Amino acid sequence: MTSTETPKSRHPPLPSEEIHLPGPHPARGIYGFALYIVSWSLLVVYLIWAITPVPILNRLGITYIPSKLWALAIGAFFPSAACLYVTTIFLINCWNFRGYAIFENIEDVKHDFGQRSKSNSIDSINEKPTPRKAKRC
Fold it and tell me: Closest Cα partner for 27 from 19, 38, 16, 18?
């Protein structure tokens, strides 16, 4: 072996090393699963805090908790934030594309792909095409 040759591996390279694949890396699936578990856990903790009366939480040893009014505020915040986000994105897009006037610039182009071929077309609606025999598999 000369100094310009590279040693060849016994195993072919992994697909991610050889070419760029459009799919996400496996680590994203692991992070997604962890986020799924954490979000469900936080939802359960939130619902326990919001629904369980304060004396029962105090008997369980949970004494340092926020007011129950915050449960209503947090519950109202997320739907309000989602509506505000959608409205903001819509208004930004209307501003960037100058409102609904973008539909006034549409041109109707006739025969965009050329004239239709008359060679094998049916000239009349009442004319029946020639029957074809079905091929057996």
Answer: 16
